[in-house]
Amino acid sequence: MSQTKRFVLLAGAALSLGSVNAALAQQSTSPDEVRAVVAEMLSDAESRSSLLADAGHDSKGFMISGEGFTLRVGGQLQFRYLMNFRDDDNTVGARPGDDFEPGFQTARTRLGARGNIISNDWTYVVQGNFSQDGGTFGLEDAYVEYKLPNGLRIRWGQFKLPLLREELVDDPYQLAVERSVMNSIFTQGRSQGVAFLCNSSWCNTGLAFSDGLNSANTDFTAPGGAALAPVGEADWAVTGRIEFLFAGAKKDLRDFTSPRGAPLGAMLGLAGHYQQSPNSDNTGDIDRELFEYTADMTLEGGGWNLFGAFVGRWDKFRNGGVDADFNDFGGLVQGGIRVAPNTEIFARWDAVFLDSDRGVTEDNFHFITAGFNQYIAGSAIRFTADVVCALTETPDLVGLGALPNTGIGLLGDTDSGEIVGRLQFQLMF
Question: Which CATH superfamily, name and number, covers 71-428?
Answer without folding.
Answer: Porin (2.40.160.10)
